[in-house]
Amino acid sequence: MTDMNMRANATRNFPGRTYRFYTGKSIYEFGHGLSYSTFSKFIISAPSTILIKPITTTTHQPPNTLTSTTTNGQAINISTINCQNLQFQVNVGVKNHGEIDGPHVVLVFWKPASSQGVTGIPNVQLVGFERVVVKREKTEMVTVELDVCKDLSVADGDGKRKLITGQHALVIGSSSERQVKHHFNIRVANSEDQGSLTCM
Predict the structure, then answer these.
(1) Which of 102, 125, 132, 180 could make a disulfide contact with 37, Cβ separation 3.0–4.6 Å?
(2) Where is the signal peptide (predicted)?
């Protein structure tokens, strides 16, 4: 095997590799598993809007257009963004519908917004997971912590990390189970915005 590309290429009829880029038909999806019990999940809380702000120090003023008029799909270099306080929690409820106690692994996937400024964006990416034991007919809460700049950025052709504005999605669970989706927006903050996160 000499072709080490990961991303799909339709001109060569190449479906891509790994769960992040594969576009073909799968026998077992990434995260597929079996259990003696049946679980369902629901989102308790997660941000609906994430506001990004430029770095304001005089020692870091690269030329960019990080303003409140930034359009959806713009890829912004994270070195120009103030990444402090851009961490958030996703709280997920897990209910055991079975007759026995059982463990369950909550998988949190991220579907990035599309952008013409970055090619080869992954279709989906695992950004967090937590294991929980839920007693029969009971519900437990799982918390997954995410960092916007580290977990929700993509690499461009030069290897620079970029944050894409627009609508993103968090997908709870693998495709072999009932998935729960949560949509949120990443946008540039304006002068009237307070804080960095707006929760659902």
Answers:
(1) 102
(2) none
- Model confidence pLDDT, tens digit, residues 64-108: 545 444 567 889 999 999 998 899 999 999 999 999 999 999 999
pLDDT tens digits, one per residue of 17-61? 787 777 788 788 888 888 889 999 999 999 999 999 988 754 444
In order of start, what are the domains of the chain with their CATH numbers? 36-199 (2.60.40.10)
CA separation for the pair 129, 107 (Å, rounded):
5
How many residues comprise the chain? 200
Residue-wise pLDDT tens digits, 99-155? 999 999 999 999 999 888 788 888 899 999 999 999 999 999 999 999 999 999 998
Q: Find the helix or strand (DSSP H, E) in which 1 lies.
A: none
Residue 128: exposure state from Cβ atoms within 10 A (0-12, 13-18, ≥19): buried
Within 10 A of 153 (CB to CB), how many other CB atoms are there?
22
Is the backbone of residue 32 left (phi > 0), alpha (psi -120 to 50) or beta?
Answer: beta
**Residue at token pair 């713009």:** 74
